[in-house]
Amino acid sequence: AQKITQTQPGMFVQEKEAVTLDCTYDTSDPSYGLFWYKQPSSGEMIFLIYQGSYDQQNATEGRYSLNFQKARKSANLVISASQLGDSAMYFCAMREGYRRDDKIIFGKGTRLHILP
Amino acid sequence: DAGVTQSPTHLIKTRGQQVTLRCSPKSGHDTVSWYQQALGQGPQFIFQYYEEEERQRGNFPDRFSGHQFPNYSSELNVNALLLGDSALYLCASSLAGANIQYFGAGTRLSVL
After folding, report:
1. Can you tell me the distance from the alpha carbon of B91 to that of B48, in angstroms, rounded to the nearest whole number?
2. How many CB atoms lie within 10 A of CB A37?
3. Residue B93 confidence (pLDDT) above 90
4. Residue pairs between chains A and B whose CB atoms are closer than 8 Å
């Protein structure tokens, strides 16, 4: 079974609209961390946002927020007021276990296209 | 403050050859992880180095090996290259015990 599932291979969104990228995860470990990374065509993986499994509040970083629904094992990324520069691949990822620097498991990604 | 740097950016090899990829971690970081990203896929964990030792390993054959130097920089070696080894190889650095791994721009390896 896949640990991280991203069901949207591609999305087209009008500039300035809000975007929600879906992510569900599968783990039986009570301690885990969830990440979103952005990968432009240059290839570099850019860290966007992190949510720990014990965090009570949803994480936010500027225009990025993580809609964490623990019971549903869902960790959707919300980008407010999208910009042309947001066009890229977006990966949801998870770290299992208590050790915070453990390996990260990635989903297959969603390609986001922002239309002018 | 320099981020994670990788070299070379691109590499072309033929089947059976050996390759070495290099990574310099972000300043202050002591842990280096390597990932392989095939075209159209998410990155897959190869291994992680801390204190010059391999601390974790993913599901990759022994042809994949690595090294970490006292200055925390790292190398990834792949022997007996196969066509299927063609991929983007990403290096990530972190501080031991910290949540976030920071990635470099990767080395794109093509095996012909």
Report:
1. 10
2. 25
3. yes
4. 66
- Alpha-carbon dihedral angle through residues B111, B4, A107, B40, given to the nearest 10 degrees: -30
Give dist(CA B38, CA A105) in Å, integer. 14
Of A3, A6, A17, nearest in space to A86 by CA: A17
* pLDDT of B111 above 80: yes
What SS3 state is found at B85? helix
Say if the Cβ atoms of B43 and A91 lie within 8 Å. yes
CA-based nearest residue to A113, from A12, A7, A8, A6: A12
Give the model confidence (pLDDT) of B43-69 as tens digits.
Answer: 999 999 999 999 999 999 999 999 999
pLDDT for res A46: 95
Is residue A10 within 8 A of residue A19, CB to CB? The reply is no
Distance from the Cα of B94 to chain A's closest Cα (Å) equals 7
Tell me how far CA of residue A34 lies from CA of A3, A78, A104, B25, B89, in angstroms.
11, 14, 9, 22, 22
Q: Are A58 and A45 in contact (CB under 8 A)?
A: no
Confidence of residue A97 (pLDDT cuts 50, 70, 90): confident
Distance of alpha carbon A58 from alpha carbon A52, whole angstroms: 9
Cis? peptide before A9, omega within 30° of 0: no
pLDDT averaged over every residue in chain A: 94
Partners of A33 on chain B (C-beta within 8 Å) are: 99
Q: Tell if the CB–CB gap between A46 and B40 is shorter than 8 Å.
A: no
